[in-house]
Structures
1.
Amino acid sequence: MAVYKRTYVPYEGPRTPSWSRFLILPRVSYERLWQSRFLIMFFMACFFYPIGLAAYIYIANNLSILEQFQRAADQYVTLDASVFLLYCSFQGGAAYLLTAFVGPSLVSPDLVNGALPLYLGRPFSRVEYLLGKLSVLVFLLSTITWIPGLILFGIQGSLAGWAWTRDNLFIAGALVAGMLLWILVLSLIALAVSAWVKWRVAAGAVLMAVFFAGAGFGGAVNQVLRTQQGYLLNIRQVIYTVWAGLFRTDPDNGLSLESAWITLGIVAVACLWLLLRRVRAFEVIK
Amino acid sequence: MGEAVIQLDGLTVRFGKREILHQLTGALAGRTIGLLGPNGAGKSTLIQTLLGFCPASAGTATIFGRDIHKQARELRTMVGYMPENDAFIADMTAVSFVRLMGELSGLPSEAALERAHEVLFYVGLGEARYRMLGTYSLGMKQLAKLAQAIVHGPRLLILDEPTNGLDPPARLRMIRLVKEMRDTGKMNLVVCSHLLRDVEETCEEVLILKAGRIVHYSNLEEERKANRRFVEMETVGDDTGFADALTSKGCECTSMGQGRLRMVVPVEFEMREIYRLAADRDLQLRRLHYRRDTLEDIFLKAMGDVPPEALRPRNGPPPLPPALPN
C-alpha cells in the first residue's frame, strides 16, 4: 500500500521463523553502536596485539630473518601454550574494556523507557530477549578474542608443520573454550549491571567497580589473612586460573582450578538470577 | 452474538496473598470491548494476564479459542498491545522503532520497514517518522505506541488508556483512529479506560470490574435501546387534559401536582409534540429537562458507590426536584 493512502490495512504476508528472531536485537544494536567513532577506534585498536603476534609468529618461524639481525634466535622461537595464554590475558583485558563501553547501553534503555512490555507482548520470550542482548556482546567480543586467536593458531600451525599442530591441538580448544567462557561471564555481568543500574554512565562505573573493587578487596583479604584465597574475589585471577588449567600451565596464584570453576559458576548464576528478576513485562509493587 | 473473542473461565490472579482477579467468568464477543473500573479494580492485571505477563493462579482464559498460557506465542502474533505508560526506546527514530517491533512480531525485515512507514503515516506521524522518539511530545508518543501495536496487523488490539494525557484535538484524533480500525471489520479491540466518554464513543460492549470481580457486562447498543428517555417539566396555567394528551401520544406520565409532571417518552416520540400540546392549551412551560441513561449511570450503578435512591430508577420516571416558587 502506498504510504499516502491513510487507511488501516492488516498484514497478511509471510512471517519469519521464530527461532531466528533473537538475532534481530544484535543487528539493531550494532546499527546504533557503530555510530560511535570512539567505539570504532577502540575496536580497531583491539587488533594491534593479534597483528603484532602474527608478525612474531612469522618471524619466529623464519629464523633466517632473525639471523640477519644477529640476534640469539633461541629466545624467540618458543611458541607454546604460554604464548597463547598471554594472548588470552591481553585480549581478555581488551574484551573487558569493550564490554564496559558497550554493555551498559544494552538493557537499561529498555527499562528506563518501559519498552519491555512491547518486546514481551510479542511472540518473543524473556529468554529470547536475553539471548539477543547476550549475543550482541558474544558476537562483538568473539571478533577480538577467539576468532583472531584461532587464526593465529592456524598461522603457527601452517608455518610450524603438522607435528607441532598435532602436539598442540589442545591450544585451539583452550583458546575457544577459555575465551567463550570469559565472554559469557563478562556479558552476564554487563547485562545484570545494565538491568539494575539504569543510568548508562553509572552502569559503566559499576561494571568497572565490580572488577577493580573485587580485586582490591581480594588483595586486602590476602594481606590481612595471609592467604591466597582472596583472589577468588578477583574475577581476572579466577578466569586466569581457568585459562591456565585449559592451557595446561601453572597459574601461580595459589587458586585451585576447582575453586575457580565454582566461583565462575556462582557469578554466572547470580547474574542470571539478577537479570531474570529485572527483565519482566510488568513490575509488582509491594 | 458471535463467537467469543475473549472467554474467561474462572480466571483468578493472586500476587502473594492478595487476590487481584477473582474467578472471572464470561464470554466477551463484541468487536470493541470497553474495560471499565475504578483504580485498582484489576483492569491492567486482566490485560497483562491475557497477554501472558501474569500467571493465573486458577482458571484460564482463551482468546479466539486459544489458551492464553498453552498457546501464548501463537496468541501474541495475533494481538497488538498499547501499554498505558511510556513505552519506547528514546534513541531510536520512530520508523526504526516500529520496524523493530514489526520484525519481532515475525514480519520479514523489508515488509516490517514498509509497514512501519505505512502505519506511521496512518496514525499521523508520517512527517515526524525520522525523529528520535525521545524528542516526541506526549501525544506523539501515544501515537507511536499505537503504531507499534498495529504494525503486524493484529486481530485483537488491546489499548490501555489510549487517550491518557492527550489534549482535546489529540484525543479526538485517537478516538477517530480507534473507530476507523473498528470499522474496517478486520480487528477486534479492547479499550481499557477510566474515561467513560471514550468507551461510550468507541465500544459496543462494556465490562465493568470492581475489586477484581465482574460487576457488569452488557452490550451498550442494546442498553441504549432499552433505556428510556426521561422528561421532567413544570408548567404554569391550567394543565387539565395535558397529561392525558401526552399519554395518548404514548408517554407514561405522572402528575406530581403544582404543575409538575414527569414522564417516560417512547423512542419514536418527537419532543416538539410537548410544545405543540402545551400551546394548544395555552400552557406555559417553565422548565423542561430531558435526558437518557448514559454509561455513567450504568457505571455508577455497577459500582454501587452511590445510594440506589440517588440513581434514577430504570423502569420509572426520575424524581423531581423541589417545586419552583410561583
Note: The longest helix of chain A spans residues 169-196.
2.
Amino acid sequence: MSGAVVSGAPLVEASGLSKWYGQVVGLNDVTVTVGRGVTGLLGPNGAGKSTFLRLVSGQIIPSRGTIRVLGERVFGNARLFTRLGVCPETDAFYESMTGLDFARAMLRLAGFAREEADRRARAAIARVGLDPDLKKKIAAYSKGMRQRLKLAQALAPEPEALVLDEPLNGLDPVGRAAMVALIRDCGQRGISVLVSSHILHEVEAMTDQILLIHQGKLLAEGKIREIRELLDRHPHHVRVACSEPRRLASRLAAHADVVRLAFEADGATLVVETTKPDEFYSRLPKILRQDAISLASLESTDDGLEAVFRYLVSA
Amino acid sequence: MPVYERGYRHFEGERSLRLLRFVPIAANGVRLAMRSKLFLFLVAFPSHISLIVGAVIAYLFFQQLPLMMQQRGMSPAEMTQASFLFSSAQTQVGPLLYWTIQSVQAGLWIPVIGGLLAGRLIAADAQANALEVYFARPITRLDYALGKFFTAFGFLLYVTLVPPVGAWGVACLFAPNASYFHASKSMAFGLVVNALLISGVSATLMLGVSSASKKPRFASALFVGLMIFSHVASQILLEAIGKPDVYLVSITNNFLIVGYRLVSETVVGQIIQEGVDLPPREHALFVLGGIVLVSIVLFARRLRAVEVVR
Amino acid sequence: MIDAAAAVLAPPAPSVVRPRPAGLLRGALRVAAFDLKRSARSFRAFVLLLFGALPAVLVGMRDVLFDVPDEEFRAGAVFFHFVFFMATMQFFLLFCSVFLGASAFSEEVEDQTLVYLFTRPLRRASVFLGKLWSATVLGSAILTVTTLAMWAMRGGRFGAGSAENVPATAAQALQCCGLLTLGCAAYSAVFAAIGTFLKKPLLVGILVAFGWEVVVSNIPGVIPNVTVMYYLRSIFASIYGRADLPRPVVQVFLRGPNFDTAGDAILVVAGVAVVGAAIGAWIVSHREYVLNRAE
C-alpha cells in the first residue's frame, strides 16, 4: 500500500493528526477526509491552517497520527509531487531571477524538457495574469505579482491536485476576483484544490465545501449552506444607532424573534438580538418610517467568520 | 476635516534631545545581540581567558618579588622601584604583558565577535525590510548609523578593554603598595586609548561591510575574510620580502603598531631589540584612516530605505 | 494569450504523462545545475574571485614592486609554491569552502525558498547533494582559475618575466588544482553537513576551519592526523618533493610524518568528502525544516 498509487483516492486522509512545536500545539487530533474537488480551509489567524497544509504538502512531520495525500504517504515521497502542486504562504523567492526564469527552473527541476518547460511556464504565467516576457527581476515585483507567480509555479506542471496556502494575500480586489475565478476554473477542469483563507465570502465564491479549523482543532466540515444555517439558528446581534432608541426598542419588543434588547452607554445605540435576522431586516425600515425615527448607523456583528467560530466554540 | 475622536491628542510630552536619538537604536541592537546565547557565551567567557592568564602571571610575579629583590640585594624600601623595574622585563608584569593581552583580543576576538555582529547590524535590517520602518520615524541616516555604530563599538570595546585593563587592575591589587599603580597609570591610559581606536575602526569597518549586502552571513564572512586575509597576506610578504612596511597590509597589525607607542615606549624598545623593525606610527594611522574613510563612503552610498532593483 | 494558455492547460487526460520522479543522482544533478546557474553570476562569487586574485597579483608583482632580498625567493623558483601553500591552500581554500559549503543548504532554509525544492518530484537527499555539488564546483572553479592565473604569472612582471627557473610545470599546476578541488569537496561536505542542523553554520565553520584545521594541524606529533589539512599537505609534498619546497614550507613538514605516496592521503580526503555528503543527505532526508525568518 505504501508504494502504490491509488487512483480515485481522496485528496487528503488524516487520522488523529497532531503537530506540536515544543510547547505550542499547532494541530490537535484532526481526523478528516477531504474528497476531490475544491475544498476551502477556513480559520482565523493562528488556527492551524498553515500547519495542516504543511503536513499535507510534506514539509513537516506529524507529531502523532497519520496523513495520506492522493492515497500516498507524504513526507519524503518524491513521487507525490508529480501529482501535487503547492503554493506556499511564505513570500520568498529567488529574487535575482525573472518570473519566467523562476517558473521555468521549477519545471526543469520537475523533469520537464527545456522546450516543454518554457511553453508551460509561459502559459502558466499568462494564466495568472502576468506578462511572460517581463524582464523585471522578482525583487522588483509588487506583492500581488509575487502572489500570482507563486500560483503560476504550482499550476505549471498541471498537477492532479493543488494545495494553496492563503493565495489571495496581498491581492487587490480585482486580483482577488480573478484568482477566485481561476481557482474555481481549476476545480471545473478536474484539478482538486485545497485552499486556505480566513475570509468566508471569498471561499464561498470558490467552493461550497469547507473545513473549519480553530485553535488547532477541526470545528466543522461540510457545505457552506449547512454552516450558514447553523449561523442563522444562532441569535443574531445587530447594533442600531438612531435618534430614538427607546421608542424603537418598544416597537421591536412586540416581535417574538427579538429575544434581547440592550442599550449602550452612549444612550443612542440599541443592540438587538434576533433569531430571524432576515425578517428583522425587512421589518426594520417600516418601523423606522412609521415612527419617524432617524437611523444613524446599522451594523451586524455576526456576519463574519469570527461569529461562526464564537458560536461553534461556545456550542 | 477636523478630528473629532476624543482619544486623539498631539503629543505634548518630552522628546529626546536631537543628539541622543541614536540611543534607542543602539540599546535595541545590544539587546538583540545579547539574545543569542552563543554570542553571550563568547563575550562573557572565552574572551576573558587572557584576563585570567594575566591575573595569574601578576599573582606569581608579586609572590616572587621579595625573593627577586633579595637576590639582587635590594632593600624592602626599594620595593616600589623594584616592582616596576622588574615589570619592564619581558616575562614580568609590565607593558608588554598588557599590550600582548590587548593584541590577542584584537587579533582573535575582533574577527570572532565582529563576524557574529557584522551580519546583525545593517544586513539583517535590510533583509527584513526594516529600513523602511526605521526611516519612517523622525530619525536621519546619521542617527541610524550612530546607533548601529555604538552597538558594535560597545561590544568590541568590552573585549579589547576589559581583559588588559582588568589584568592591570588585578596586578595593582597584588602589588605591595600603590606605587605600582602610580607608576603604570599612564600605560593604562594608553591601553584605554588603544582600545577605543581598535573598537572605533573595527566598528566602522563592520558598518561598511554590513551595508554592502542584504545577506547577514555574507556580511559576516566578508568582515572575517578581510581581517584574516589581510593578516595572511602580510605574513606571506614578510616571509618573502622581510620589509617592515608589509606589516601595514594587515588590519590587525596596524592596530598593534599604533598600540605600541600608546601603551609604552619601553615596549617598542624591546621589540626593536629582538630584530623586528616597525613602520612609523603615522603610516599605520594613515592606513586606518583610509579604512574608516572607505567604510563611511560605502555605508553612505549603500544605506537606503528602499532598494531600487534594476 | 489567455485562450492559448487555457488550451495548454486543458484538463488532464486520464493517462496524463508526467515526468517520473528523478533518482538520487539525477535529481542532484538537476538541483546542482539550477543552483550553479544562479550562484555563478552572484555578487559573492565575484567577491570570492577578487579575494582569490590577490595571491595571483602578489606573485605577478613580486619583482615589480618588491625588492626580494632572499636568494631563494628571488630566483622565482619557489614564490609560486610558497604563495600557493601559504595563501591559497591554507587560507583561501578554507575560506571559500566555509563560505560556500556552510551556506549551501542553510541558505535555502534562511531564505525560506527550501519549500520550492522540497515540493518538486525530487528526493530530499538529492536537494542536499545538488546544493553541495554546486558549492563544490563553484569553489573549485574559483580556486582553479586563481591558481592557474598565479601559475601564469609565476615568472613575475605579470607573466612577462622569465619562468625558466620555476620548477612549477603545467602538470604540477594542474595537480595543485586537483588538490584544491579535492580539499574543497571535503571541506564543503563537512560544512554543508553542519549547515543541515545548525542555525549558524558559518560561525561554527569558521571556528572549525581557522581554529581546528589551522591550529591543530600545526601541533607536533600525531594530533594533526585528525585534520584534513594534514593530508592535503601530504599531497602537496608529493606533488613537488621536499627538495623543491621553500624553507618555511619545509619547516612545516619537518614537524611530523608524511605519507610516502599521495594515494593514502587522497583516499582519506575523498573519504571525508563522501562521509560528509552522506551524513548531510541522511539528516536532510529525516529532518523537518520549519521555515520561519531567523532572528
Note: Residues 79-110 of chain C form the longest helix (32 residues).
3.
Amino acid sequence: MKVSAALPPGVSALFFSAARQRRRLEAELTAGLESAGYSEVIVPILDYFEPYEALLSQEGRQELYRFIDRDGQQVALRGDFTPMLARLLAPQLPSLELPLRLFYRGDVVRYAEDRPGRQRESYQLGAELLGVADGEGEEEILRRCLDLLVAARVPGARVVLGVAGALDTLLEQAAPEVPERDELAAAVARRERDVARRAAPQLFEVVRDGKPADPEILGLRVAAEVERLEALCRSIDREYPSIDVAIDLAEFARLSLAPDLAEAMRRRSYYDGLLFRAYSDSGALPLGSGGRYDRLFSSLGAELPAVGFSLSLDRVEAAAAQGGEG
Amino acid sequence: MSAGNRISGRSGDRPLRLALPKGRNQVAARQAFAAAGYPLNVLDDDQRKLMLSAEEEGFELLLLKDWDIPLYVQYGIADFGIVGSDVLEEVDGDLLVPVRLVEGRCRLSFIGTAGSLPKPGAQVRLATKFPNTARSVLAERPWGAEVVKLHGSIELGPILGLSDLALDIVQTGRTLKDNDLVELEVVREVAPCLVLNRGSWHHRRDTLNEILERLEEAEVVR
C-alpha cells in the first residue's frame, strides 16, 4: 500500500540538513540568552482550556485547537507561550526571587485559513523578563531581541516600535461611536490615506510617517512615551548599526487599551505598554513581536511588571537564507 | 533552481517591484501611473514577457493574474501591486491598502432574472467566483443560500438553472442585458486597489510615500 507523505496545510517537516540547521540556529540563539542571564523553561504543549478562556478574545478562542479529553476535561494545544507561563508562574511568585529572566522554545499551534503566509504550526523562541519596571525592563528585552536578530544574521533587520493604546484619544475624537471607531482603527492599520485624512489630519500623519508631527495630540502620557522611544531609537542606532529602528504607531492601531473598542475589535490583547515588531528586508510578515504585558499578570491576581518577545524561527531562518544568497 | 536564477525577495538590493494585473485593471493602473509621471512605456514592448524592467521609473514589473497578485505581494516577492478589492476581500491577506484608483471601478452585485431576489426565509442556490465574500454577505441577509463556486461565465448559472442567482462583478451591465438578466441588488462598489506588504512599507517607506503622493497629486486615487 502506498502511504501519502502529504501534511495538513500550514505545517511542515524538517529533515536532515534542514533539521541540523534549525538546531544550530537554536543553539546559537539560546547560548546568547543564557550568557545574558536567561534560564530555559519547558512547558507542555497540552493544557486545560478553562484558565485561558477569560484571557482570550473571540478570535483567539476560534484559533485554538481544543477538544474534550477522555476524562471529560476541555483541553487545548499551546497557542501562545506567554499566557501559559504567566498562569504557571503567578501562584509561585511569592517564593521566587525577582527579577526573573527566562526563555522558551517550541511549537505553537493555531488554526489559520489556508491563505498566503499563514502557518498553523510555528516554531518559536522567546524570552520574558519579569519584575523590572518601566523603561528599564522594556529596553533590556528589546536589546535581547535585537541581539538574536544580529546573531541569526538577519539581513536588513528593521524593528518598529509603538505604544499600546497610543491612538485611542485621536480615534475617539474622530469617531465617538465604537463601531465607527473600530472601522477607523482598522483603516489606519491598513494605511488607508483617504479615510485617515478625512477623519483627522493627525491620523493621516500617523499613517504616512508613523507618528503625528506633534505627539502631544495623543495625550501627555503617550507623548512622553513617544519622546522616550525616540531617545531609545537614537541609542539603538549607535549600538546596533546593522538594525534600523523606528516608531510606527499605525502598525499597532488595532491594539487598543479602551475595553469597549478592544472588545469590538475582537482583538483583546494582553499588551499594555511598549510594543515592537521585527522585519527582515526580504519578508512581508514580521519575524517576531513583543512588548509589555503587566495586565496579563494583573488579570491572574499578581502585580508584576512583565515584558517579553518571541521570534518565529521559520521566518528568521528564511530571512537569514536570503541574506546568504545576496 | 540555482540561487543565481532565483527571483530574490530581498528588497534592499533591487528596484521596487510592482505587480500589475493582466486584465481590465491593467488599463486603469497604467492610466493612473502615467498621470503620476510613471508612464510604464515598457509595457508596450512585449506583453508575453512576465517580468519587465521599467528603468526610467525605477521599477521592475511583474505581470500576473489578478488572483495571484495578493500572494506575490504578501510573500514579499513584489513590494506593491494593483488588485481589485473583490479579489482582495476574497483572499483576505494581511496587506496594506493605502489608496484606491478612481478609474476602473465597478460593482459587486446579485444578478438573476427580473424579480428573482429571494424573499425572507427562502433557501436558494448562489453561483459566484467569490465564495468567502458570498458567505460574509449572506450572513447579513434574511434569506439563505447554498454557495456554488464557479470559475467563469457566472451569468450562465441562473440562465441554465444551475443556480437561482449569482454574485458577480457588473461593469456596464451589457452582458446582463444581452442575456436577459438584471442587476437585482448592488452589494458594494469594487475598485482597483494599490496594495503593499508590511515589510516593504517599513523598509522603503520614503519611496513608497513619494509614489503615493504623486498619485494623489494627479487625482487618480483616493
Note: The longest helix of chain B spans residues 205-217.
